[in-house]
């Protein structure tokens, strides 16, 4: 079946609300009339509201970069799915390697956050990826198999309709290194097979799997030409309107 390409920027800890608005205002005319794909921006919590307002009518989706799995409670510094959604987020990035490395996110936590996102009505974008040492030791599929099983634990086929996966080889994030299109396709095909085992053929055929890791305007078209790559999760190249727009319009 046809899977609508999903081209998402992950701004990480960059941009105030005002800077987000300026970015969207600059990108808006450049994206006018673009169809057949979804453009999205994962922005800091403090920018969600202003970004969502600025993005109204543009087709650009605004999302959060993390959430807590509880609806409310004594969790200083966290926000819930309901808070993110009320601010204007329609999706959330979960289990990014930086969250796993620096903030202790585990597969178990990601599974809880995934369930909360589904329950709360926002799209979960679940990140998976191996380190350079794991790839070089030949453990890529072992690591990713364990990650996808742990991160999707408890998810049923009926609840998986909104799920998006993002393969982000840790060794290619912010390093300038990019998996070759063949390396990326091999992993995406593996993950699609795992989805089939876990959630059935429909989930395997319908779930979009994004590639992330030094995606730029000059390599996105080649990556998107692979049969199991359905979009991109973009870091540095999504911080400037012109390069982000070029990525979204990769074959136009």
Structure described in brief:
The chain is an alpha/beta fold and 252 residues long. It has helices at residues 17-31, 48-55, 81-87, 97-103, 107-120, 132-136, 140-151, 181-199, 201-206, 220-224, 241-248, and strands at 6-10, 38-42, 60-64, 91-94, 123-128, 164-167, 208-212, 231-234.
Describe the protein:
It is a single chain. This protein has a single domain (6-248), classed as TIM Barrel (Alpha-Beta Barrel), CATH 3.20.20. The longest helix has 19 residues, at 181-199. It has an 8-stranded parallel beta barrel, surrounded by 6 helices. With 252 residues, the chain is an alpha/beta fold. Helix 1 (17-31) runs parallel beside helix 2 (48-55). The radius of gyration is 17 Å and the shape is globular. Helix 2 (48-55) links the parallel strand 2 (38-42) and strand 3. The protein contains 11 helices and 8 strands. Helix content is 42%, strand content 15%.
Quote the average pLDDT: 96
In percent terms, what proportion of residues is strand?
15-25%
Indicate the overall shape: globular
Strand tally: 8
Distance between the termini: 21 Å
In the sheet with the most strands, the strands line up as 1-2-3-4-5-6-7-8
Give the number of helices: 11
Architecture (CATH level 2) name: Alpha-Beta Barrel
Structural class: alpha/beta
Residue runs with pLDDT of under 50 for 5 or more positions = none
CATH superfamily: Aldolase class I
Number of domains: 1
């Amino acid at each position: 079946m046809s899977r609508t390409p999903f081209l998402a920027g992950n701004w990480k800890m960059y941009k105030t609300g005002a800077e987000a608005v300026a970015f969207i205002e600059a990108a808006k005319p450049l994206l006018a009339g673009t169809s057949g794909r979804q453009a999205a921006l994962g922005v800091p919590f403090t920018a969600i509201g202003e970004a969502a307002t600025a993005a109204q009518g543009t087709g650009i989706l605004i999302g959060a970069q993390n959430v807590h799995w509880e609806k409310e409670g004594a969790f200083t510094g966290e926000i819930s799915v309901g808070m993110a959604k009320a601010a204007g987020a329609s999706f959330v990035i979960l289990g990014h390697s930086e969250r796993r490395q620096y903030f202790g996110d585990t597969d178990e936590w990601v599974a809880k956050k995934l369930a909360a996102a589904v329950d709360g009505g926002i799209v979960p974008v679940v990140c998976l990826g191996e380190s350079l040492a794991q790839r070089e030791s030949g453990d890529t599929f072992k690591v990713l198999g364990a990650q996808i099983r742990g991160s999707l634990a408890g998810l049923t086929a009926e609840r998986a309709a909104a799920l998006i996966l993002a393969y982000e080889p840790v060794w290619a994030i912010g390093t300038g290194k990019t998996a070759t299109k063949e390396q990326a396709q091999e992993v995406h095909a593996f993950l699609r097979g795992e989805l089939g085992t876990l959630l059935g053929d429909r989930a395997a055929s319908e779930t979009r799997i994004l590639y992330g890791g030094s995606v730029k305007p000059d390599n996105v078209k080649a990556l998107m030409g692979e049969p199991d790559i359905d979009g991109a999760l973009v870091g540095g190249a999504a911080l400037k309107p012109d390069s982000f727009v070029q990525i979204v319009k990769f074959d136009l």
